[in-house]
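Hey, quick one: can you model this chain's 3D structure?
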Amino acid sequence: MVTLNRRTALRAGVGLGVAATTAGIAAVRTLSGPPDYWAPPPLLRAAAPERRRLLVIEMAGGSDGLSMAVPYTDSRYRDLRPATAIAANAVHPIDNEIGLHPELPKLAAAGVSVIPGVGVAQPDLSHFEMLHRWQTGDPSGSTRPATGFLGRLCDQLGDPSVPAVGVSLGVGSSQALACEHVTTLSVDAGNDGLFPVFEDDNLRAAWLAAQRAMSHPDRADTSQLATARAGTAAALRFSDVAATLSPAATGYPDSDLGVQLRLAARLLADDQHGLRIVHVPVGADFDTHTSHPARYALLMRDLDTALAALRSDLAARGIADRVLIAAYSEFGRRVPDNGSDGLDHGAAGTALILGPTNPGVFGAVPSLRTLDPDDNLRATVHMTEFYATLAESWFGIPASDVLPGFPRPIPGVIAA
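Sure thing. Here's the predicted structure for all 416 residues.
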């Protein structure tokens, strides 16, 4: 199914009153480990701004940043996590402090910008609340904008006449892409962006004809039926576009994430229809209250394999320099073990940026010795600084146009 996600409400209050509390502290750290720790791949320089695309991977459920990017030389890490800590000799070191999870060898080899300690000044331990804040770009949860951060980017980037400026590859609409002026859609990746496939071509033709007839606009109709008609018309229009996409590549894992990223590459490679942003809500369970080590290893293995296939696909299509990949979770996990081989809800997490970037660790690594009252990491890079990097450093859109306050991008991430 394809679900319309078009908003016309005014962005009342967006951009007022809430400032990033840690602006400017996120500077790139020198790769100071021995030469055999990590060999950065050749830099991929970013394409011209008007050719750039963005792929955002949302790891909902609370991905544990300390397991994805391990502080492997800090003895306090092992003291606090006797049941879930990862051995120092098992990680893929990036520098002499941070190493990637053992199940991320391809990501380590290909290069990635790691941003530990991403969060907000006053976190909430609720999945629903923190997802809402991340999707809308509302760090305090007090503004409650009607649009999403990615939707506001789409409004800045896109043409209202195109079938879709942003697409979310998940079932149901996403607040992240709620916008004012352009069209954004949610698409079931399992159907490759198409309306349901019929084995009988005649039946499919008849069904589509009926849908097109029902979606025909009626200027006199101002009811909710008119909105439904407009939604169906937009979905049909995008389905027509999806039918013209280049063939899918092989090599992706047989997982939901693999299916999503395989379609994402085809959408991002399309130059004809104005698409700029793809949002991928990961359906896997990152909420590892129990059996964290085994469960998280499977999650990282799927992420590593899917991202490697995607980056290979983008390179084969000649668009690797045009696509920035950003991954985040609404929060991390609590630092100490919970007694059930698991980790409870935390605060600051770890974000990743891949593509035409300078690999390494960016920003201040959060201290394991100055936790908050709930034994969670304190944010060292504000959520809006991470988002400002996508808006301003990647797309050239002033961060204050799409985010509250005047957040500054994380310096040095994009290889321009």
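One thing worth noting: The chain has ten helices and 13 strands.
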